[in-house]
Design a protein that fits this description.
Length: 79
């Protein structure tokens, strides 16, 4: 089956019109509509800032303090 994707804008009356589709007149088609994933520049900037903050936290660049030998080598889970 040949699929065709396009985009359109809903008009003020809530109607949608497609033109120049590559199907013969009278051909039954299945139609699925969904909004596009357009992101405003503000939303994109906020998303990028959250991602960078998460990456900074994941780097674990803050010191955890002194660790004793028992904390480094003598772990109960290894026994």
């Amino acid at each position: 089956m040949k699929a065709y994707e396009t985009s359109a804008t809903v008009d003020a009356e809530g109607q949608l019109r497609l033109s120049s589709v590559p199907f013969a007149p009278g051909t039954q088609v299945e139609v699925t509509i969904k909004p596009t994933n357009e992101m405003t520049s503000e939303a994109a900037a906020e998303c990028a800032a959250r991602l960078l903050a998460a990456l900074d936290q994941a780097r674990n660049t803050q010191a955890v303090g002194p660790l004793g030998r028992e904390q480094l080598y003598d772990r109960d889970v290894l026994r």
